[in-house]
TrEMBL record:
InterPro entries: Haem_peroxidase (IPR002016), Haem_peroxidase_sf (IPR010255), Peroxidase_pln (IPR000823), Peroxidases_heam-ligand_BS (IPR019793), Secretory_peroxidase (IPR033905). PROSITE patterns: PEROXIDASE_1 (PS00435), PEROXIDASE_4 (PS50873). One of its GO terms (biological process) is hydrogen peroxide catabolic process. This is Peroxidase. Belongs to the peroxidase family. Ascorbate peroxidase subfamily. Residues 29-331 form the Plant heme peroxidase family profile domain. Ca(2+) 2 binds at T197, D248, T251, D256. Pfam families: peroxidase (PF00141).
Length: 370
């Protein structure tokens, strides 16, 4: 009985949230089904392509999900992470902090399919957002109804990354502060970190925890479980750079709540995962999921809410951005007018000029005639 009432309450809250989010004035004017009229099959195409890609390479779900978060954290979810550097500008993707970010080719492949069906309609920012949403669903995580209508921004500056991205060794105070700048709470931090249930990290990222160097120390991180440290040392030798290890070694391609058991047991791979135990609010969330949860339902519902909040950050809509042709390049400036229009305008202007000059003459004749 109580369960039925609780479910009904969840449904009501969900519906209200969805309605509020499509009202004018809701964040950035994103809306449910922004492509319903212009490209009704858009979301279906993304799901089909992601299914085919992950069917061949399940490991790509993590990179795509991370790519989206990295995009949203710097300048908002407007596809700026996808832009290439140019001779005059080093782009976000070439910031040292984004060296391990991968999955760009997945977005390009899906955008190509979308453009085949509906040329120039779906933005790169939405392609990435929908692909990330589907990487969760296809890894057995929750389905998250996503607002769309994001347009692509054209600012992508490497120097913006450090100021807006939590550093790999950031402490819990810095992490919470970084999230607060984006209107995300400490709970969002604990919940979204749960994305580290899939995907990998490079040995270079975790070697300070294994061999010292973290915060100036010369030994391994005492907050990392000793047996796990030994296992990881077997996988990552000193000097291994780009070799990768699973964030969640038991179920590396399944989106589940196991992450919290790992963190609670001092086996969170990243120092920022371990840091969740050092703040009362984030620790309480980790403990509740690790010790009290009887299923992943609570985590999934929380993740959907926090993911939606993240997906709205800095979204550009209503012609504040563009629909990029190629996700790695801003569109070339369009010529002011095409030649036919220009000719028509010259003709029209000439006609108006003639009429203006002839008007006094015509009026003169009229008076003389009268
Ligand atoms: C507290 C904020 C966060 C920090 C400090 C952080 C940090 C990291 C780091 C250092 C890596 C490993 C990168 C490497 O070694 O190359 C990583 C991987 C990953 N992160 Fe996060 N992350 C954060 C938040 C998020 C969020 C919000 C999401 C998604 C909702 C996410 C999803 C992922 C995924 C899926 C991977 C694996 C990527 C792959 O397989 O290539 N992270 N993260």
């Amino acid at each position: 009985m109580a369960t039925a009432a609780a479910r009904a309450a969840v449904v009501v809250v969900t519906v209200v949230t969805m309605v509020v989010s499509v009202l004018p004035g809701a964040e950035g004017h994103l809306q449910m089904g922004a492509y319903n009229k212009t490209c009704p099959q858009a979301e279906e195409i993304v799901l089909k392509e992601m299914s085919a890609i992950l069917g061949k390479t399940p490991d790509l779900a993590g990179p795509v999900l991370r790519l989206f978060s990295v995009d949203c954290f710097v300048g908002g979810c407007e596809g700026s992470i996808l832009l290439d550097s140019t001779p005059n500008n080093t782009a976000e993707k070439d910031s040292p902090l984004n060296k391990g970010v991968r999955g760009y080719e997945v977005v390009d492949a899906i955008k190509a399919k979308l453009d085949e069906a509906c040329p120039g309609v779906v933005s790169c920012a939405d392609t990435l957002a929908l692909a990330a949403r589907d990487s969760i669903r296809l890894s057995k995580g929750p389905f998250i109804p996503l607002l769309t209508g994001r347009e692509d921004g054209n600012r992508s500056v490497a120097a913006d990354v450090a100021a807006n991205t939590p550093a790999p060794g950031a402490n819990i105070t810095d992490l919470i502060a970084q999230f607060a700048k984006l209107n995300l709470t400490a709970k969002d931090l604990a919940v979204l970190s749960g994305a580290h249930t899939i995907g990998k990290a490079r040995c270079s990222t975790i070697s300070p925890r294994l061999y010292g160097g973290q915060n100036g120390s010369s030994s391994s991180d005492p907050t990392l479980d000793g047996n796990y440290t030994t296992t990881l040392r077997g996988q990552c030798k000193p000097g291994d750079e780009s070799k990768m290890v699973d964030l969640d070694p038991t179920t590396p391609t399944t989106f589940d709540g196991d992450y919290y058991k790992l963190v609670a047991g001092n086996r969170g791979l990243l120092s920022t995962d371990a840091a969740l135990l050092l703040d009362p609010a984030t620790k309480a969330y980790v403990s509740s999921q690790a010790n009290n949860a009887t299923s992943d339902d609570g985590f999934f519902a929380d993740f959907a809410v926090s993911f939606l909040a993240m997906s709205k950050i800095g979204a550009l809509t209503h012609h504040k951005g563009e629909i990029r042709n190629v996700c790695s390049k801003v569109n070339p400036p369009s010529p002011p007018h095409n030649s036919n229009n220009a000719a028509a305008r010259t003709y029209l202007n000439g006609g108006l000029l003639l009429l203006t000059l002839a008007a006094p003459l015509l009026l003169g004749f009229l008076f003389v005639g009268l």
